[in-house]
Amino acid sequence: MCGIVGLFHPTVALVPDEGRLRAMTGAIAHRGPDGDGFHAEPHLGFGHRRLSIVDLAGGAQPMTTEDRTVVLTFNGEIYNHAALRRELEAAGHRYRTRSDTETILHGWREWGLGLLDRLKGMFAFALWDRDRGELLLARDRLGEKPLHYARLPDGTIAFGSEPAALLALPDMPRRLNAEAVGDFLALGYVPDPATIWAGMRRLPAAHFLFLRRGEAELPEPRRYWQPPRTVVAAPDDAPAELARRLKAAVRAQMMSDVPLGAFLSGGVDSASVVAFAAGAAREGKGGPLATFTIGFPGDGDERPMAAAVAERHGTLHRAESGEADYLTAARDVARLFGEPFGDHSAVPTLAVCRLARQHATVALSGDGGDEVFAGYRRYRWHVLVEGARSYLPPGVRRRVIGNLARAYPKMDRAPRWLRAKSTLTELSLESAAGYYGTVAKIGDERRRALLSRDWRAALDGHDPGARIAALMGECDPDEPLLAAQYADLHTYLPGDILVKTDRTSMAVSLELRPPMLDHDLVAWGMALPAQVKLRGGVGKRVLREAMAPHLPSHLLWGKKRGFAASIGGQFRTRAEEVRLRLTGEAMLDSGVFDRDALARMVDEHASGHFDHAQALWQLLVLEGFLSQHADAAHASRSLQPA
User: Any idea which residues carry the catalytic annotation?
Assistant: First the structure.
């Protein structure tokens, strides 16, 4: 696990300045506190920050082949590197280290682009082949590891693990991407391949980018892996097969030469990972598995459930109580992520990362289980509404139910059974538009009302739900659950969940691994029929049945708890401070927002009749981001619509 940077001059045989590379690596030093390394030659320069995990003595980077014609800077872990090494050595390749990094170099020599199909792990890397004049940028199948890139004004291609690496360059353009601002307000994150900066992009998951010496044009990324878009028949004993596959994935991801532990919440996913990891740790005779929990006092405290799992599996368990000042945290998140990020569970995630880092350098997590095995409540609602939608003529849905949805009051504080507005709205729309409504954090009308007149004009015609609709349209139209999961796998998972886990873990120099996102397990789980995952209206049914021999029944079948404290109460008791932030200099100077609309939202939330907690959090994070970047070199242009 590391941080990587690079500069590529495609048409000029210029040796990149090491000072610029050092500035880039310095901006992401938290990703690799164990050392740095640099390589520069005509056309190309690489930089690397290392967090030592495997082959502590021999895995320094950038790494070259023995003849120094192929150079690599790599972030991540290749879990099947030992098997690939045996295959490569049988083909005549000679290794100098024990590191998985070297396997990528030899694999490129042996298989070319076919290397990507063979790698099993999480990765983002840049590989330069001098003889061929080719620079390969590649990212893992699910988007666990990030890679950002941009063309600078002089034609140089800059890339790095985080936006901060590119922003360390004075000539990096600093202008907001208006559509990305709209997407952030709608979804709570900026979906790939965009970033908040107009001139910076993210390499999408499961894609690679080929840059060639002598070619000035920046090509489009190309896909090398695709998750399933149709379902297949489930095996006779799907739960047993799932248990076998998950157990293998967990064991593969325990590869480490440094202390390893696991996150343990009160949920099914992390408990499932811990159950298999604890068994593997016992068999390895390396002592009990270390587990880590952060609990928030109240009904959502996960510590008692986590303690029960830890006792059952004999882990060395550590738990702490968490409290958070979310107004302060909003600015910390903006700094930590390098762009606005609207998932407030990043705050407790950072807390558990800090706890884990005191005792381990690597931690396993349960991330991915909800997306792969249909754990989100919105999946169940989408399938139910889609079933109802099929019985209603389009005209009835649009006119009768649509009018009823518009007339129905929005009762944020009412009992759940009275809050029917969103369900009626989803039912009145077509399938993809309805699903977008369930994932949108700030609805289209409210979002538009928050914007200034100029920004409403700049975003006129931009639909944040269009990408979701297009992705759902790629799937079998008779499989609404798969369509929703497929869309999330391309948007919410890499844009929210995996950005959150990467930034929070790397902020404290912790490597976080999610075995649920083993790509073979993902492909298998996604293709399972809906009734296997949602039978009886219970999400993750197949996973719960698979883990029945290993976990307490009250955990498996109890109510799902979110990993975050309530933020609504803080924003009510500190409404005046929220108002000052959101109507202050940074927000107003940006020209993005309507001051009166912002103040009105704060007042509505403070009254207790409306729940705008999520929207206020996103706006506070954006305020923090704008405050931090107001003095950038191109500030006079950066805060204008792109």
Answer: 2
